[in-house]
Amino acid sequence: MTSALGLLRGPRVVLLDYGSGNLHSASRALAAAGAEVEITADPEAVAAADGLVVPGVGAFAACMDGLVSVDGPSLIADRLAASRPVLGICVGHQVLFTSGVEHGVASTGCQIYPGTVERLQARRLPHIGWNTVQPGAGSRLFDQVADERFYFVHSYAVREAAGLPGDAVVTWAEHDGDRFVAAVEWGALASTQFHPEKSGEAGARLLHNWVDSLVPAG
Q1: Could you tell me if 75 and 43 are in contact, meaning their C-beta atoms sit under 8 angstroms apart?
Q2: Where's the Glutamine amidotransferase domain (predicted)?
């Protein structure tokens, strides 16, 4: 009986706890998508998980400080080196890029994606609310939700993606005439500028898509 139940369990997902992020709503949303969720920064748990989610709210520099305090950049890099899935959300998406510039001050990111997070060139900031996106060709995250709206809360984003690898799937959005990167899918790494856990049925479907792509170990 135990063995049969083990075969039916959902993928194990670690929600990285580094002092920044909407942990509880993200945990509930991931559990509803079929994952067994643990909130921790324990290196062994992070390494063993079927999927790692990096959340983030607030300022780029503060999130990076928190991430560095739990050795987050190395934990993320080690998983990606082993082709183990990682999902970044909001500032957890932003910190995956080379750097972020806020109030004229540049901070170093995880340097996985090439690119700079900068202030949007829009009259109305912050960008708060629902917005459509334009998924890149071959996107798996946006399967069945390509025409839906997602919930954004931000004033900063990546506005140029020329340096991203050619095999990266880039999804775009636009706010007040300014175009920015809304999501990236590249190998085992995926990330979204919006909050799927706050995006209703569309966000739930997107998280299902990601969780369903995970292969439980054992």
Answers
A1: yes
A2: 14-210
